[in-house]
């Protein structure tokens, strides 16, 4: 199995962002957006999950849990001298938290965009009808609220005020779980799940 990734480098001395994208996205979707990261002084390293984009394998929750630490090991060897960030958008918030948990101080900070607290309401909305035992396992593996309580690097949470897919209540719950003094919560007004970049200046 092979995972596809692109490292958009403008300045090899600048920090890179290890980026886990959302469910309806693939790496090439970020070809144009990479320049905005560059303008903010960041390089971007985006990776596709199993079965997404040019990555091989089958889409699976198991892969979503197993692959990110392997990706992070590779990334950290090629990220350059500046301490990097890890970021997850929507579905990608869970693997980003996993990486922050496992590798902690090797990253400068964790950024969550439009992330969930408990994954089970999201899975139900996507049509996954899980028995109670599977819901408990899914929560243990993928829900972010309990992970954030154990993360000890700075965390920035970005969320749209009008997000109707993953409501801003998830962002507030996640923020409440971050150890005191390590979290920043930004609820962006007037935007939802997929249009935060309407406020691109404030976002970056």
Structural commentary:
The chain is an alpha/beta fold. 34% of the residues lie in helices and 18% in strands. It has a 7-stranded mixed sheet with strand order 1-3-2-4-5-6-7. Strand 6, helix 7 and strand 7 form a beta-alpha-beta unit. 37% of the residues are buried.
Shape: globular
SSE order: EEHEHEHEHHHEHEH
Whole-angstrom Rg: 16 Å
Main sheet: strand order: 1-3-2-4-5-6-7
On the 0 to 100 scale, the average pLDDT is 93
Task: Name the descriptors.
204 residues, alpha/beta, seven-stranded mixed β-sheet
Task: Give a brief outline of the structure.
The protein has 204 residues and is of the alpha/beta class. Helix content is 34%, strand content 18%.
What is the element layout, followed by pairings?
Elements: E1 5-8, E2 16-20, H1 34-39, E3 43-47, H2 61-78, E4 85-89, H3 93-103, E5 109-113, H4 120-125, H5 132-142, H6 145-148, E6 155-160, H7 168-177, E7 183-188, H8 200-203
Parallel strand pairs: 2-3, 2-4, 4-5, 5-6, 6-7
Antiparallel strand pairs: 1-3
Helix pairs in contact: 2-3
């Amino acid at each position: 199995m092979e995972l596809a990734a692109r490292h958009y480098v403008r300045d090899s001395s600048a920090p890179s962002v290890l980026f886990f994208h959302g469910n309806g996205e693939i790496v090439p979707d970020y070809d144009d957006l990479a320049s905005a990261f560059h303008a903010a002084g960041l390089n971007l390293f985006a990776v596709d999950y199993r079965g997404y984009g040019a990555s091989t394998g089958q889409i699976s929750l198991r892969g979503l849990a197993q692959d990110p630490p392997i990706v992070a090991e590779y990334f950290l060897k090629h990220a350059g001298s500046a301490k990097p960030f890890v970021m997850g958008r929507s579905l990608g918030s869970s693997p980003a938290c996993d990486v922050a948990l496992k590798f902690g101080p090797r990253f400068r900070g964790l950024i969550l965009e439009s992330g969930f607290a408990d994954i089970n309401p999201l899975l139900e909305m996507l049509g996954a009808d899980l028995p109670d035992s599977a819901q408990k396992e899914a929560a243990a593996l993928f829900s972010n609220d309990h992970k954030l309580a154990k993360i000890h690097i700075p965390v920035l949470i970005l969320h749209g005020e009008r997000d109707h897919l993953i409501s801003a209540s998830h962002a507030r719950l996640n923020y409440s779980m971050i150890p005191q003094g390590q979290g920043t919560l930004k609820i962006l007004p007037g935007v939802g799940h997929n249009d935060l970049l309407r406020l691109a200046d404030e976002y970056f």
